[in-house]
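Homework-ish question, so no full write-ups if that breaks the rules, but can someone show me the predicted structure for this set?
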Amino acid sequence: MDETKVVLSDHEIPRQWYNIQADLPTPLPPPLHPGTGQPVGPEDLAPIFPMNIIAQDVSQERWIDIPDEVLGKYLLWRPSPLYRARNFEKLLGCPVKIYFKHEGLSPAGSHKPNAAIPMAYYNREFGIKRLTTETGAGQWGSALAMACQMFGLACRVYMVRVSFEQKPYRRMLMNTWGAECIPSPSSLTVSGRDFLAAHPDSPGSLGVAISEAVEDAVTSENTRYSLGSVLNHVLMYQTIIGLEAEKQLEKIGVYPDVVLGCAGGGSNFAGVSFPFVRDKIHGKDVRIVAAEPTSCPSITRAPYAYDFGDLARKTPLLAMHTLGHDFVPAPIHAGGLRYHGMAPLVSHVVRLGLAEARAYNQLETFDAGVKWARSEGYVPAPETNHVIAAVVDEARRAKEEGKEKVILFNWSGHGLIDLTAYDAYLSGKLTQYELPEEEIERAIRTTSAFPKP
Amino acid sequence: MDETKVVLSDHEIPRQWYNIQADLPTPLPPPLHPGTGQPVGPEDLAPIFPMNIIAQDVSQERWIDIPDEVLGKYLLWRPSPLYRARNFEKLLGCPVKIYFKHEGLSPAGSHKPNAAIPMAYYNREFGIKRLTTETGAGQWGSALAMACQMFGLACRVYMVRVSFEQKPYRRMLMNTWGAECIPSPSSLTVSGRDFLAAHPDSPGSLGVAISEAVEDAVTSENTRYSLGSVLNHVLMYQTIIGLEAEKQLEKIGVYPDVVLGCAGGGSNFAGVSFPFVRDKIHGKDVRIVAAEPTSCPSITRAPYAYDFGDLARKTPLLAMHTLGHDFVPAPIHAGGLRYHGMAPLVSHVVRLGLAEARAYNQLETFDAGVKWARSEGYVPAPETNHVIAAVVDEARRAKEEGKEKVILFNWSGHGLIDLTAYDAYLSGKLTQYELPEEEIERAIRTTSAFPKP
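A: Not a homework solution, just the prediction itself:
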């Protein structure tokens, strides 16, 4: 009997998050005020986020203590097991050992609660009574719904309309955890009403949903906004994944040749990889790979520029790979990973040559996902299928090169609430889709008016 | 930071299942041939089950080795963590420590793969190429679909029509794992066609779905039938749950005052409790409690009698608590736990005074389940909500009695694919339902023609 996983006991859980800003060879370009073109100060963000979170977002400390109450909630499913994918290895027949962090065991079924729980905690500590957010495929919205319930906060989630309709179980899950879930664009906000007037049949986008959630937060009492990815503090909360993986690999005396994650806004990718990027900065020979969809290829094809985080231009300008804040992803795409921009920290790390990215088409991602489900049992989320497709690539490359390789990746979540996408794939209803070149040209035009990072 | 769970490493997984037949103070009444009224022999069952499984069903050995290949698949999610439900304890405010086995972390989201995997394995070992089965809410059908895929067997699942329609994600999950899923009653079998002719609008029942699956198995080449609960060998495979729990509780120096499980056919209840029933037989002071629905109250209200396992009378007669093989559960009931009979071993153990049972109405079970989800995060399956309601009862009783108690229960599965039931509950569409007395009288009439156990 070969062992399949490395488990840590509760008392072995890491007590600090890792802040990569302390180790960057060149600092991250700061967020800019769109009016002045100057770096924003904490006071500019105070209507949107509580000050304790803002302080973490700009912190240059390497290690940030995880509060005991947050650890207590993490222990509901953390430390997550580090698995070896023996059956998938056998299926591929390549000279690789494949290890993965199983983030699908959380109550919400993905890595998202790693960030939702500290966010709800810090908002409650700051005296906030209600959070708003947006969600695409619904992983983030459900995670925040659960976290708010745990810390006694009210919660409203603006959900991209096409996902709201395609994935009714996500709305039901948020309701079960006591949150409101509103299809976006909605008539509840000025941003939503303006967008609906111009595009009455819009499937929605994360850009407009963010505008609605931010507007709701800044115009309502005792309310703040939460973003489920992209921002520095969110990425830092997710580093618990990589820090646990480091401990677990150490226990079995293994170090990875390549570390992979799928990337939409960038948080689960950063979560698994930043502790290893740190090693790379300090000279370690390790490759770091992000997997994104060909329908929303921000790192692989979009310009690196200052751009807004949302459609209604309510956020500061962020330096990132961006398809333009006015990007509306094709509804043809079945999974999440639809955000127009990539986290500034992830974009920066790629610019510094510390990480690379590859894009995968949805047919090849579902092919990889079904192979996974039929060998390893667990059905991956459509987002996770992207990184599995990249793992298949890495394994084949190892075979071609005749080299043995150790692969570590983040299995970011399960697909049990996304089965309609599998149904569409298995019945031949999903199609190939590559973002047309005109969309990249539009992104360059959209961002050309802003300062260059 | 208080610890929340006890984990076992892969090498600590139990290597044997526990067979309670070796410890019963009086033996289990044998299955009878309906024609002769005599105990059935292995050859009578050979068209339905492979001989290696039949041998296990009647074995009197206390410990049965778990094959290495089965252990290898178990390790995908086993040993399952033993949790302490600290948040739920706090919510209840009663003098209890609540421990539970988290069986919702398996790829199928429930305890069912514990039995599906050995069943697929033993059938493959016996040279079988295809399995048929039935499923109610879908937990069993999806588990067998996964197991068959893992061992290279074809799989067809007859799913009770009302569940097939209410729970489309279950069908999609079975398809993702490569199985066929057919709504029952279907026109593919004589049993299905006969039933449809008499009841064209029937919501279906487990009784008729079993008839279809058995008929398919005995009339198709290289095909056998698999049952997901009720039978001795199925209950034995599930004892891995209780055996792990014993080890985990020993590690923290705790022994339970009461052990609980929800009971439909009886397999998860037996799985968690039979190792503790063994202790009770040997004099230990521990209470064993089964929680069933008031809509399908076999242990608490139905006669103990010989009856068929299916509607079309294709099975041997089994000695059990039974609502009659012609029972059709009310479609008003949102969860699983709809089988007309209770496992012979569970029925026998209750008759011997080694276990007790209580029935819960669906409104109180969903009330308990929503409280659980909002404190502990994980959303329980509707079936699991029954045992949570029983845990609430036990906790309140401990408070009334002013006694401290340790509770152990089996959290049999998550409800992420059953969210429509939560949606119905939260929007006030679920109603109270108690099985009318006439149904009990009918069960007594139905079984009066058979021998008395």
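Now go work out the reasoning yourself. Hint: The two ends of chain A are 54 Å apart (CA to CA).
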